[in-house]
Design goal:
2 copies of one chain form a homodimer. The first copy, chain A, is an all-alpha fold. In chain A, 62% of the residues lie in helices and 0% in strands. The radius of gyration of chain A is 21 Å and the shape is flat. Chains A and B meet through helix 4, helix 7, helix 8, helix 10 and helix 11 of A and helix 3, helix 6, helix 7, helix 9 and helix 10 of B. The first copy, chain A, binds a DNA duplex through loops.
DNA sequence: ACCTGAACACCGTTCAAGT
DNA sequence: ACCTGAACACCGTTCAAGT
């Protein structure tokens, strides 16, 4: 969308690095084309117009940069402080989904498979648990319900970011007419796998799970 | 567990490669130590006592090898043909969990984030969908319930393989007493995060979700 | 048919050095 | 304080060659 960095400015003094600039460029790069697998310190540096080693002045390692991205993304989530428990859980669930759709490669590839044990991640978990606490549940009951809900949420978002919806699959899947012949029930689900149905599916699944709690 | 390959046999003619031997060694290597990130064609070849390029005689690329591992692992799952729908879903859910615990790095890192669109993967999906079909549901209703259940299952297994249970987290998480002070509800859940509780949590969550359907 | 050696274009990271 | 160049130990993969 912009043939800017590597080409133009030769004499204009280069905009200095900053964690803000690095992190925004990283998040943008991760969501482009080949996603997380194609993300590298060297590719990021190239995009920023610096040498790869410059990044080590700002983050001691690639993992530290990734953790900064995690905090930046997860830190944008909040849990409403008022409303019924179900309303509050519904709100943060939908907000998490919006976030995942905004950063599918990063959320699916890094956020979901990682423990939320940064200060920012723990603060989010604490706010979520407060909903269950406010509903009058003790630790054992809260743990059960919290985890069941989270498992549905993680699975649904994994599916929309890395799974059947857009994620990688086999290199040479069977052709469609073979699928129709050998796996008729799978084939019959085809229409419901379209992105147009995802939001409705997510909301219906969420209500079913909240009901089951 | 065995100082065998790289050391001893110099004069004994090396056991020839085979896809069986390669795949078993790969699955074993993936579950060792540093997991999927440390897995490489070169490391696998080293372990097998051959050069990395030899693997290309058996699989055209690393991705093809991974897909073969996917089929080998996922192909071991089956859905009971008889029983009530809930019994059949419960059985395959528990079997999937056992499989995930036997291959946590591979299931969490490769199977769950990938589309089940190999012939083997599609056959499993078809068998799962047959349960919903046998329950008399039309395609729309089956799709809703199937996906909600799968989302819970994927999320739960992701958590047990790559998430809070054993997966990677921030390099420098806040120390425990800081957590206890700032995030008391999170800290109160500590005891329930122990592996001893995982099976009970999984079963309880599964029943809640099946009830919600 | 099965395996190898050399080479190419990549990685993350360290270290000493430049401004 | 901020950035760089050269180097090290890795990657996956191609290609021509060995047996």
């Amino acid at each position: 969308m912009a043939p800017r960095e590597g080409r133009s400015s030769r004499k204009t003094p280069r905009e200095p690095l900053s964690s803000e600039r690095i992190e925004l460029a990283a998040l943008k790069l991760i969501e482009q084309q080949e996603g997380l697998p194609a993300f590298s310190q060297r590719a990021l540096a190239r995009r920023l117009g610096v040498e790869a080693m410059s990044l080590y002045h700002w983050y001691p390692s690639q993992l530290d940069l990734m953790n900064a991205l995690f905090d930046r993304v997860v830190g944008s989530l909040g849990v409403p402080a008022s409303g019924t428990p179900v309303e509050r859980l519904r709100a943060v669930s939908l907000a998490f989904r919006e976030l995942a759709l905004r950063h599918p490669a990063f959320v699916g590839g890094f956020v979901l498979p990682h423990r939320f044990n940064t200060a920012v991640g723990l603060a989010l978990l604490e706010a979520m648990l407060r909903v269950f606490h406010d509903a009058g549940l003790d630790a054992a009951a809260a743990s059960r319900r919290f985890r069941t809900w989270m498992h549905f949420l993680m699975g649904a978002l994994l599916d929309e970011t890395s799974g059947y919806a857009r994620g990688p699959g086999a290199g040479a899947p069977p052709p469609d007419d073979d699928v129709a012949r050998q796996f008729p029930l799978v084939a019959a689900l085809g229409p419901y796998n379209k992105p147009a149905h995802h939001e409705a599916q997510f909301k219906a699944g969420l209500e079913a799970v909240l009901r089951g709690l």
